[in-house]
Amino acid sequence: MIEQKIKSLFKAHFGYEPLQMELLPASGSSRKYYILETKNKKILGAYNDDIRENEAFLNFTEHFLQCHLSVPAVFAVNDEKDAYLLEYLGDTTLFDFITQQKTTTEFPSSAIKYYHQVLDELPKFQVVAGRDLNYSFCYPRAAFDRQSIQWDLNYFKYYFLKLAGITFNEQKLENDFQELIEYLLQASSDFFLYRDFQSRNIIVNDNKVYFIDYQGGRKGALQYDIASLLWDAKADIPNEIRLQLLNHYLETLSNFIKVDKKSFTQYYYMFVLVRILQAMGAYGYRGFYEQKKHFLQSIPFALNNLNWLFDHVVFPIELPELFHCLQQLPQSEKIKGIIKKVEHQLVVRIFSFSYKKGFPKDASGNGGGHIFDCRALPNPGREERFKTKTGHDQEVKDFLNGDAAVERYFNNVKDIVFQSIENYTERGFENLMVSFGCTGGQHRSVYFAERMAAAVNQHFSVKVVLQHNEQTQLNG
């Protein structure tokens, strides 16, 4: 029924049916997204039976496009307003990019340039677009007000503290919540608050960033969104880089409004605290309650963030019962078990390489894992226009995407790799190596390594490390 609704809308708008339609893996919401393909383009189809939420998204999108912000164009909406077609911006989120580029314990420097782009755009959403946005479309609240903050804090209390087995005095905790709310409401809040401004809601494509999933936006304080981005748990941004990025944001923001850095920072860390609590509520609900294991993997990162706050921030108000609860978390047997599992999670190392230069070396001592030969597939390297490109470039992706032999090869390889991941996870193994080789290690092998890394990230709660062995060619 839903798929037919999306197909009918596509045909009504474009005048023909899509050649292929694929349901994307579910994320944290109940919305359904489909990729609809024709011979030369992709369209994103969306279905959501929450009409008020759709109206917020569609009206915000129209306004943001008028403000020249990088959000997806809307091609068509059905009469019921539960289905719509969007511009397809790509399948690599900023979080995916960080994961793919993180071949060591260091945060990838290549990701920082994208964070700068994001932070250059954020004030345009908050100040420029926020200035004359129609906030009557906001859903479920028009502002990040007392009620909104209370919901977030209760979300943390009921879906994280209680499900994690933390004992607390409920009245004292409620007193702390009210104290925290009163303080936060003193911050200037006449701006657009994106609400879920984090690395999974930012698309990276052709060296540019694009923004999605802002339907929960409302009027609020500037500090909330920058806190959401920089303290995004699994993005795991090192603290010194966080501070650099915060300063970059404040400098950019000062081009739009007058900024008192001292006052901004004082409120900023309290919004960091609230955002971490809200996120932990989501980890508890999706992880403890709905049993979606990959949400539990964010908990150790959130605890590390809380530890940094306690060690480095002088909080302007006293919240004794809340802080007592937070300091109990590492002692929870349930939390200890989660941390132990995360520390011993399977690491899938995905390589691209050149057969001329030799196979990737196996540092784990497990024998090298799967090696897949891409040389029997169409070779972009034979065409002059691709000589200086790699499998990471959109032009090369477009050349390979949709080719029947390429799709058959990838699906067969994916079945083999997924079977190994499932088996290795059940047996408690910690390493799996998957390598793609082609003649020069530049086009096909890179394309498949990138695509496999994205597929594994979408389907499994494992750590993915992506490495392209011919780095000199890729950087050239």
Average pLDDT works out at 91
N-to-C order of helices and strands: HEEEHEEHHHHEEEEHHHHHHHEEHHEHEH
Main beta-sheet strand count, sense and barrel state? 5 strands, antiparallel
Text of the CATH class of the largest domain: Alpha Beta
Q: What is the beta-strand fraction?
A: 5-15%
Name the CATH superfamily assignment of the largest domain. Answer: Aminoglycoside phosphotransferase (APH), C-terminal lobe
Strand order of the largest sheet: 1-2-3-5-4
CATH A-level architecture of the largest domain? Alpha-Beta Complex
Helix run count: 17
Coarse structural class: alpha/beta
N-to-C terminal Cα separation, in Å? 48 Å
Number of domains: 3
Tell me the number of strands: 13
Shape: globular
User: What value does the Rg take, in angstroms?
Assistant: 23 Å
Task: Give an account of the 3D structure.
This protein has three domains: 2-87, Phosphorylase Kinase, domain 1 (2-Layer Sandwich); 94-342, Aminoglycoside 3'-phosphotransferase, Chain: A, domain 2 (Alpha-Beta Complex), CATH 3.90.1200.10; 345-475, no CATH class. 49% of the residues lie in helices and 14% in strands. The relative contact order is 0.10. The protein contains 17 helices and 13 strands. Residues 472-476 have low confidence and may be disordered. With 476 residues, it is of the alpha/beta class.
